[in-house]
Amino acid sequence: MWAIVAAALLGAGAGVLAGLFGVGGGVLFVPTLTLVLGLSQIHAEATSLLAILPTAAIGVWRQRRYGNVRWRAALILGIAAIAGVEGGVQIAEQLPQDVLRRLFGALMLLVAAQVAFRALRKPAYSSEP
């Protein structure tokens, strides 16, 4: 029962972050699914991909109403990602779980470093005249 409650809280938290920052659910889903729900790394990644579908659909629907969706760029990214996902799944299936977990951790560190760098550098534009 607690697993269902934890999954529901995780989903709600990921939904808030997705709507607020455009963060993919994997940033929050994968670590939580492995640590809290005890899934293996590869099962957490696959589960995260499926869980992202409704989150992304609602996020796009809401952002579209504000005119924030760039359809052409999204279509190009989506089509290119299909091939990338297939390749990534093939690689992930061949790697040991500990290697896959370390690679995911390295990716999270790189993303965190990029976000910190962008937050600390001078803004490219200013709203002041």
Give the secondary structure arrangement, pairings included:
Blueprint: H1 2-21, H2 26-35, H3 41-65, H4 71-94, H5 97-120
Helix pairs in contact: 1-2, 1-3, 2-3
Task: Tell me, briefly, the overall form.
Answer: globular
Query: Which parts are unreliable, with pLDDT below 50 for 5 consecutive residues or more?
Result: none
In total, the number of strands is: 0
Range of strand content? under 5%
- Output the number of helix runs: 5
Structural class of the secondary structure composition? mainly alpha
What percent of the residues sit in helical stretches (DSSP H or I)? Answer: over 70%
Main beta sheet: none
Q: Give the total of domains.
A: 1
Instruction: Write down the secondary-structure element order.
Output: HHHHH
In short:
The chain is mostly helical. It has helices spanning 2-21, 26-35, 41-65, 71-94, 97-120.
Commentary on this structure:
By secondary structure, the chain is mostly helical. It has one domain. The chain has helices spanning 2-21, 26-35, 41-65, 71-94, 97-120. Helix 2 (26-35) runs antiparallel to helix 3 (41-65). The longest helix is centred in the middle third of the chain and has 25 residues, at 41-65. The model has no long low-confidence stretch (mean pLDDT 85).
Output the keywords.
mainly alpha, 80% helix, globular, 129 residues, 5 helices
